[in-house]
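S.,

As promised, the NAP run. Input:
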Amino acid sequence: MAPANAPGVSDARQVDALIVGAGFSGMYMLHKLRALGISAQVVEAGTGVGGTWYWNRYPGARVDIQSLEYSFGFDAELEREWRWSERYAPQPELLSYANHVADRFDLKRDIQFNTRITAAHWNEDARRWDVTSENGDTWAARYLILATGCLSIPTDVTFPGIGDFKGPIYRTSRWPREGVDFTGQRVGIVGTGSSAIQSIPIIAEQAAHLTVFQRTPNYSMPAHNGEIPASDFEAWAKDPRAYRAASKDTVGGFQNEPGEKLATETSPEDIRADLERRWAVGGFRILGAYVDQAIDPAANKIVHEFIAGKIREQVNDPAIAALLTPKDHPFGTKRPCVDTGYYKTFNRDNVELIDLRADPIATFNADGIATEKRQHDFDAIVLATGFDAMTGAIDRIDLRGIGGVKIKDHWAEGPRTYLGLMVAGFPNMFTITGPGSPSVLTNMINSIEQHVEWVADCLASLAERQHPSIEASAEAEAAWELQVAMAVTPSLMPQANSWYMGANVPGKPRMFMPYAGGLNTYTEICRQVAAKGYEGFIIRQGDRMLSESREFTSQPPLPDIPPSLMPIILERLAAAGLMPAA
Ligand code: NAP
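Predicted complex:
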């Protein structure tokens, strides 16, 4: 069935692969497919490449993984010729990098900008995707590749009276290209996630007064940003290939010095020294300090107390420090923030923190925001209120698979995929860093490279066989859903009301969406699946079945778990119904 507004097939542009999105995923996918002689077209809603770094231009936006690791490794020349200016590159530099990649590989000639895909329907007779854009363009594509990003659609957050405010309202994720000058203004910002935590110190420096509306405090670690330390640069420059390989062979897709001890069995003095050292390195270095901190609440509390102490050290007013200290979720169960001067910003005379738990927003009005207790007048308001993560960009497309089944219906109880790469009933449709893959729990660029290369290898192998169709089996999809649940359930992560769980979007099914087993483990699973002739996938040429290995049997290497943690893990798996109680 063609999309309702699709013109006749003859009007549709024929292409082997239609790639949606010109962020790092879409660009690299295009580059790989070209090399394979597979014709590909990228369509992008924005007017330029860069995805996240195209849209998120708010002041202070920068990457939270060190730039030496947050850059493409697929081309040695590209790696050698690009020099990052800072440990954590700022958004303008990341956008320049995206444009450099696009120009270097002459990608823009196959990218159609200003084009938002609205519908994609699987045409069972022709075994292809009929795709339509908002402008009425149509494509007939053998493969549909959704490189739509994990955090690309802002939540539909709204407040009573929001239309009455007479000043401008800016969203961090849709920041004006020309920038915003807040000099001399009274500014209100809603939200205290990463986007707010990065922008608040800069806005506070400019504005006459800044009011921060916080509902839930988050953990933030110092970036200690600056020049790339000579030792880091030398470690990379000695052998960029080996450096990259070492990054990819980790749980998070970046080198982070995972600890080997249990916090509960280490002396307080040793813990203090170790955490101080990690805090001084900055960024995510404290995330994996102890093997038990992500599983055992007692261990997590030890790390929490250390960070709470660091917040108290930085914030002069103990009452404000207490408000800024997370209480409702264990450390590491939401992606922590990496900041430059966030906590100290609350020592400024022109910055005020409003605790929305004690004094909720009642309404927006012409002059600003009224909380239940008082009126706050503003010249401008910033919404740093987050994203409909992982599924938002996909389920906003009228996407229909075999029999016209809508992706929204298939995902009514949460996004089900096989390996985060394909969806049962949606043949020839791939998701890059889709739900069910490690994606947002990792260094995105390494995850993107792994996915794009896996998909490219898969399409090359199909091309050798005259392009049969490929589809995830329902059995493999169900088996992978179980793997995703098994990977996260032993940890504390499901306890947080995080966007990983879909908890920030009212009505969104509550399900932990990314695969928490680690990028290294996941990569090995994907390798095994392909090596077994794409197990769990149905490959057919018209009615002729070429391969129908429906089961998923690949076994991830077993994690090395200290025996003392096993009772907690088994108890949680049993409570989740994932294994029988002992
Ligand atoms: P976020 O972490 O989801 O934070 C949204 C904030 O808005 C939260 O503080 C939330 O409070 C608040 N909020 C939402 N709706 C609200 C409402 N109706 N009333 C009051 N407060 C409301 O979003 P984000 O800061 O954009 O970050 C999302 C993710 O993007 C990050 O976790 C990270 O992965 C990525 N990111 C990365 C970087 C980087 O360093 N490279 C920078 C920015 C973003 P509640 O928590 O109470 O819901």
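The chain has 17 helices and 21 strands. The two ends are 51 Å apart (CA to CA).

- D.
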